[in-house]
Amino acid sequence: MADLKTPLSASSSGPKKSKPSRRWPVRLASWAWVGFGLVVILFLVYPFLVSTNFLFLFGKSPSLSDLENPKVEQASEVYTSDGVLIGKYFRENRSPVALNQMSPVLIKALIATEDVRFYKHSGIDLEAVLGGAVSSLRGEKRGGSTITQQLAKNLYKIRRQQSRGGLGYIPVVSTIVAKTKEWLTAVDLEQRYTKEEILRMYLNTVEYGSSAFGIKVAAKTFFNTSPDSLKPQEAAMLVGVLNNPTAYNPKFHPAAAKRRRNVVLDRMAQAGVLPKAEIDRLKATPVELDYHVERHIDGPDTYFRGAVSQFVDAWCDSTGHDMYRDGLKIYLSIDSRMQAHAEEALHERMKALQRQFDNFWRNRDSNPWVDDEGHEIPDFILTQMKRTESYKTLANHYKNQPQRLDSALNAKRPMKVFTWKHDDNDTTLVMSPLDSLAYYKHFLQSGMMCMDPFTGQIKAWVGGLDYRFFQYDHVRQGRRQAGSTFKPFVYLTALDNGYTPCDRIRDQRVTIKYTENGQPMEWQPDNVTREYTGINMTLRHAMARSVNSVTAQLTEKVGWDNVAKYAHKVGITSPLLAVPSIGLGSGGDVSVYEMTDAYSTFMNSGFRSEPRLVTRIEDRNGNVIKQFDPAQKRAISPETAWLMTYMLRGGMEETGGTSQALWDYDLWHNDNQIGGKTGTTSNYSDGWYMGMTKDLMTGVWVGGEDRSIHFVGSQQGEGGRTALPIFGKFMEKVYKDTDLGYTYGHFPKPSVKISKKYTCISESEPRRRRSEAVDTIAADNLLEQMNNGGAVPDSLKGGR
């Protein structure tokens, strides 16, 4: 009987083993299919995720609007009123041109080098991509980007910071995302543009080095030619540069640039662009450049450029435009021909005047910086040097080292400096910083502005001798005492308050009593000749002869505070002191800009026109964005304005008028009429002339950089001999240039009835040549004193 305790399996050799599950292969296969499905889904969805910037992971991609209206940075251009391009504003200097304005060999060279299958793909060249991947695995550097992909990257700045998403900061992943966006954008571009349009955009977009963006600027920068005139070797050079605009820049790396150019030529040979024999010949040619880099603000150096920049910048800030990017076309009121005439007239006169000035002081064996008594100011140059930024930099560098600082100030080196002795107005001299400062202090300076008084358009603006060497603008920046050119504001105040040009005041010595700071004061103004005719002069005759005694009496009658008020009404914007001598020009410093504006009010029937440099702004396609119309407001009555013009004609029409030196100029055809006023300040520091014709108003100033630098006599230093000749020469040139359309003739007749008497018997004789009086000097030899005796108050010194 079997043992009941023995297990049934006791006869087996060992424990029972489990068999492997037959379900594992099925599971693996299922996982593989799921993974494959996820990859397929991800592959299909990934472009959508990238283009929509899913969860902000991928960064911004170009929108439909961006694709259809790509915003390429383009230089804004500045044109004169007669259509001459005189400058640009840019960060990326770019001026797009049409494809048919580019050399065909340039386009063929680009395709042969950068994208040989350009016409066969739709934005992505899979063969090039695979070839690039294989090359990368081999450790070789070979790009696979098509021209369209490169355009996408350059046009929309896909890899810039603002285009990054959350994944853009992960190495490798960021590159994959950026490349995907380039591919997607390239395909979109191919769908929206023809191949020719893509080529045009590409060649107008890419950088060629030396701050040249676009083929037009590149051709000019490196070869001084246009894109349609590029030679094959030049086209090959520019295409080669695209690979690395810095490393292959032909100006700075000519050997590397030549090697790269020859690679492009070889590829042109492979593509059959030119015969191999021709390619071999071109490869042997040296790199020949005609190099010219356009600066951040390019064009001729002009004094009005700063005013243009300031105005357009302010307008752009208020409208959201960018003049360094938007390709604006900025049109000025400046006429390039009148600007040239103004510069020539000023240079011709200042060159001759400088020769007189140098001879004058050479004969005195002295430097021209002198005090009130005519003595040379000691240590003048060192004192002036200590005010300069260069001195402050040196002093900081050699702090507590006076000997080394002194050595630096006296160290000589070659310097390019301004000179009147050469046609290009520059030369190289060996000088120290102190020598250079002393050299420049010897030069007389000048500023000149001409405007249309009826529209406010500025036609010419010359702020100095040469902007390369003298950046200070003597039209708007510079302010000096106006001397007798301020007297018309006294007569304006009188005419607008009941006086007529025929009213009379006696030329006699007078004492004017007033109060300053609570103290009783007296002022006895001198005529410049120290003589008083005793004649009961008409106001017109007195203003024409610039008689101090009459002007001072009239100022007292109308009130010096009213004179300041009227000056401000017609265009003077600088602060003015309401002092008895304000009519002689000692009430404050003014600029050529505001004086020309103020005098223009007389010619414009009493309307003040704000001076305008910019007339309109267009977008890059030539559509007018903004038209700047004349901004005018009534300042004085039309009757008073016409009478002031009539008064200013007295400088030529009254005997002894201070403008009569103009008889020496060829200005007197067809009974032409000219009005104007001379002005000279104390010690002959400033010479002025304000000249008007029936069409134009012109202001001119001449003087030293510092008030202590000047002539010491009326025969050389008065405004009628320094500033007036510049106006005379300028108007000669304007009248002779018949294309400008300015003609001789009479001033306009009054637009309203003139109720005041203005034609009267004066002390004048029949008009004759060269009978002008010596110009009076602002506040010259003033005798002010307190009743108990005292010093001359500062408010009446004038001209210093």
TrEMBL record:
It is found in: Cell membrane. It holds the Pfam family Transpeptidase. Pathway: Cell wall biogenesis; peptidoglycan biosynthesis. Keywords: Carboxypeptidase, Cell membrane, Cell shape, Cell wall biogenesis/degradation, Glycosyltransferase, Hydrolase, Membrane, Multifunctional enzyme, Peptidoglycan synthesis, Protease, Transferase, Transmembrane, Transmembrane helix. Its main location: membrane. GO terms for molecular function: penicillin binding; peptidoglycan glycosyltransferase activity; serine-type D-Ala-D-Ala carboxypeptidase activity. Residues 1-21 are annotated as: Disordered. The chain crosses the membrane at residues 28-49. Residues 449-699 form the Penicillin-binding protein transpeptidase domain. Residues 85-268 form the Glycosyl transferase family domain. GO terms for cellular component: outer membrane-bounded periplasmic space; plasma membrane. It comes from the Bacteria. One of its GO terms (biological process) is cell wall organization. SUPFAM superfamilies: beta-lactamase/transpeptidase-like, Lysozyme-like. In the C-terminal section; belongs to the transpeptidase family. In the N-terminal section; belongs to the glycosyltransferase 51 family. This is Penicillin-binding protein.
